[in-house]
């Protein structure tokens, strides 16, 4: 993710509404937002009255997060899942498909173990991910137009271009480049890598990590996920 333009390209939507509704449904109070990025959704947890910790390894993203309205009410932590405190949280939440950046099985299993350790008994792990069967990358690769944003400091119009390397050893690689729409100056180019795990693989990994109950919803509705769902939302209970 590129903090300079992330919030301008990712607006509050149905996915955010679903996560907030699910948290309200399970009646939590202490929430860890793992991979919180710029805090785009984190501050909405504060608005709902939760005690919130936002954790992310990207220092620049956290700098943006801290400037947000009511950002001073969040405990921001630079780091990864190892920073989760033992048996502290009612819910650990990963949104915006952050679950897909764990490229190896070792890193994925470690995150699950850290989340399990950090949750109180009966606590909730919630995350979303794209269904590999939907092959969303085929849609991405057909779009050869830029996204647009504005440089917050200078007001200059920006273009965000994406190029794709595709799959190499089950890891999907692409690049985002932000440049001035008028000057052509390149501000940043970032490589992104994602992995796409199957529904069954994810379900089994949650059980193996110790979660006693595992639920999965499809496409941001409180309905059971199906093979045709574009997105899965997993909900594991400790």
From TrEMBL:
Keywords: Methyltransferase, Transferase. Residues 31-123 form the Methyltransferase domain. One of its GO terms (molecular function) is methyltransferase activity. InterPro entries: Methyltransf_25 (IPR041698), SAM-dependent_MTases_sf (IPR029063). Transmembrane segments: none annotated. The keyword Phosphoprotein does not apply. CDD domains: AdoMet_MTases. The keyword Magnesium does not apply. GO terms for biological process: methylation. It holds the Pfam family Methyltransf_25. It comes from the Bacteria. SUPFAM superfamilies: S-adenosyl-L-methionine-dependent methyltransferases (SSF53335). This is Methyltransferase.
